[in-house]
Amino acid sequence: MRAKAAGMHSKDCVKVAVRVRPFNKDSHFFLFPFKSYLNPPIVWFCPSLTLLPPPPERGDAGSRCIVSMVTSSITIQDPRESQSRRSFCFDYAYWSHSGFTRDRGGLYVPEEPGGRYSDQDSVFQDLGEGVLENALQGYNATLLAYGQTGSGKSYSMVGYGPNKGLVPKLCDRLFHHRENRTPGVFFSMLEIYNEQVVDLLSRGSRTPGGLRVREEQQRGFYVEGLRTVPCDSAPQVEQLMDSRSHMLIILQLKQIFSKESITKQSNINLVDLAGSERQRSSGSEADRLKEGTAINLSLTTLGNVISSLADVAVGKKVVHIPYRDSVLTKLLQSALGGNSRTVMIATLSPADICYEESLSTLRYAERAKRIQNRAVVNESPTERLVKELKAENARLLQRLSRLGQEGRRANDETKELRQLLTHNELQIRAIQTLWEQHLQEALKDWEQQYANITQERRMMQMHPYILNINEDTQLSGVVKLFIQEGEWDIGLCDSTPRYISIKGLGIQERHAVFRNEQRRVTLTPLAGSKVIVNGNSISQTTELQHLDRLILGSNCTYLFIGFPSERGGDDWSRYDYDYFQSELAAAEGIHLGESSAGSSQTDPSLLAVFYDFIKLMPMVAEANQMSQELNKDVEFKLEIKNLALSDSKGHDLKKEIVIIVTAVGRKQVWMWSKTKFVNRKFLMEDAYQLHQAEKSRDNIAEGLSTAVLPRDKDPFWDPVEPLLLGSAHLWLQSLAFRIPLEEQLEVLGSEGTEEAILQAQLVPCTSTGLAQGEDDILIDPSELLGRRLDFQLVLEQCCGLRWIREARDRGVQIGFRLFDCSHPFYSPAVWHNVNPLLDHRVHFASLHTSQRLLDYLQSSAVVLELWGLQEGCTDLVSSGGSEDDCRGHLHHRGGRSS
Ligand SMILES: Nc1ncnc2c1ncn2[C@@H]1O[C@H](COP(=O)(O)OP(=O)(O)OP(=O)(O)O)[C@@H](O)[C@H]1O
């Protein structure tokens, strides 16, 4: 169904469309919240490294559709309250949830002709064609996709496989359209991360601190030094575009109409925003360096700008539109309330579990449709100059003819007029020649590119080669390095004739040697360099087989393509980036999937963790490499947290990836979350780039310089803090019978390692703390109901503390929570001792034992947490001191050493 509400807005209002996607079969990418992990070609492994079939459908399975559409209005129902529904009306509403089928070519089309399903074509006809037409007329045009992660933004904007989205369709049409106009399409692409602009076409040479956003009166905000490449075909744009995490693609159209002697220049901005929910969710994690906040700044500010503009549209007084508050809104200034024709597509998940998000997207969209833009056809200053010169010449000619009629053809004035005319003509011609030269240069560039492609094809038919494998599948295979006959060094250096030059973290000047002799290719690592073949590190000459996987340095990944005779018709696509990383993980003993009894069911949370693990592995390798080169003395290691731990009811805790950070010399340890690590890594790259720039400028000897950063800005550093080492369960059931309990508990680390043995007791006692005897034991716990219960928790001793054994200048504390006491309790810190006496006793009392407390005692454990202290960090203290803190249910008397 494609519904249009005719003539609802004046033509310069932002056009808003909503689209609701089908239920999803797989939602694994929700678990790793980066745009980069869209549509992951995931690989499931069992311990023997055989590929397993994908896990059963999850994602939206079991969800209910809460969205309905009638013509251009859309209604969403609150899944918790059947009476509560909200309706919205937009310029277009696309039903892509049901009523579709997949045709032979893999296209999703309506089940029957004229069916309600909106396919990619119909969306393009409504939205894409208009955007293109506007741009061809010389207006700036913006296409903006907004919506929750996984709601279908990329599907609508870019598309998947044969189901091409708006951007590729727009490009097809653009290059098709252009025939009778002088070509001039220029492409740039950027990402905004942490309020820094990253040029995605100049990945190899990232500018520390990002590119600068400047403002000019004529141009508005623009990115200084952003790479722009000329394009002349849709596939070329597609190849450039299908990159990870792009946020803003700018297609610059420069058209010359030679007959009319006019040129038009316009921009098409294509904006694929990060999941809208990230505005809220990722702000929850505070980091000292505040990256989280900056990531969200763009989206939050976009929301504020849209709100303010919507207020302006309904006549409210708005003092200021906060465009300047974020990079994204600066760059979208003309798209929102400025000189642009703008279309926004708001994408929705149909599922009940996404209700809050979908409602918030609809609210956003509703505000956006009120925004009014003031689009004008763009004339560049040169354009205006040509026009002005022509107009002036027309005036001069008129004046001349008038003088002629008056019989004054050869006086000083006519001479001056003629001179001016010639001068203007020359200027016009010069401007036009310059413009044509510019286009000629672009044409020359394209010719060169085609010549390169032909040459490359010829080489592929003759020699073995290595093919780059990128995290983004579209960028894989872009680099082909041919191994011609003889011996070839591979590495950073490109000064010798027989050299294959590569760049990357951890790549040495001379990294390894390829030998292509007698139709065999071998690879020999050179001293100190990292080379991994099929997941295993090699140090000796190794013969390569067709489709071997190579990792050079920290993370330069290549697929080896053998001689043409070996190639056959094999499908190389399975050897994607994830395959490489999974193979590495397998070599480290990280597998996934239980192959037991033919079952391929994998715990979904483990699947997510495994997926995170292989995604983070190369980043950790890079962080380690940077740390080493910057002399930071810090090591990063991936760990699966809570692999072996459970909660107070014995249920497994959610497993997640953490990054253990160790300052090796100082033996200090931190535990970082995935988000924190990813943010920090970005800052580490900055520090690293700075260092590289400094090194090449000052020619500093390797290893002598560290990036000079004040400590509080150093991404490799953090203040020391207590670290949760592990936990043990002390089950409380005996208290319900007033039976004393003495236990030797194994404190397990989060991955299942034994961190210590903890001796603890539960002692039922009188109100004055005297231990009760056998006579007080209860047969039936319900006898406690309504009566007073006193008991003491005694932490006696810790034995065999691994934490202290590793470094003597450390200490430990035990922390725990009980029933409904809001704050945790901590034993006093003990230092420097592998078997410290804790001798810590806390008295608890319930004045009227409730059924709830009784249930708690019978079914729960107190989780005793072992906290590691390091030199320089402050002890953990029990925050509540008074008896009232336990809300009258369970009182305690402050912990004391007996
Ligand atoms: N209209 C549609 N028809 C068929 N499938 C769709 C449609 N919209 C989305 N999908 C499918 O839903 C899944 C999620 O969509 P998509 O990747 O486009 O989400 P997204 O909003 O771009 O997510 P993210 O914010 O993570 O980038 C994909 O598998 C996609 O193929």
Automatic annotation (TrEMBL):
It comes from the Eukaryota. This is Uncharacterized protein. It comes from Chaenocephalus aceratus (Blackfin icefish).
